[in-house]
Amino acid sequence: MTKALHFKSEDMVFSQMHSDAGGQASYCPLVGPENSRTIDAGIAIYDDCSIERTTNYDEAAVVLSGTYRILTGEDYSRVIDAKFGDVIWLTKGTLLKYLGDKAKAFYARYPVDWRTRSESIEGLKPLTEV
């Protein structure tokens, strides 16, 4: 059975992530394995922090406020400065740094179990049921 969920902003609780990143990095998970078989989604805040990683997921992010900065490419030479309404698409295996200046972004990631999955996701298609 399908259902619609409504996440009210006043009910969102943010938790710190990457305490070694400097500044503020926090997130509020909204969709995950407990309510989806395919997508992991939430809201993230980045302010005066730097988080380096290689993505283990495909990710789409929509900037809600501030400046969301992604450094990628060779020696992090490509700089993406995204502002309100901009959309960023990152594919699995992207080496990057997440940065921000009072940035708040909605993110959606596939697969939902990217934290525990170790095998390749190439060739897999998302399920249509949530």
Automatic annotation (TrEMBL):
Record InterPro entries: EutQ, RmlC-like_jellyroll, RmlC_Cupin_sf
Pfam families named in the record: EutQ
Entry protein name: Ethanolamine utilization protein EutQ
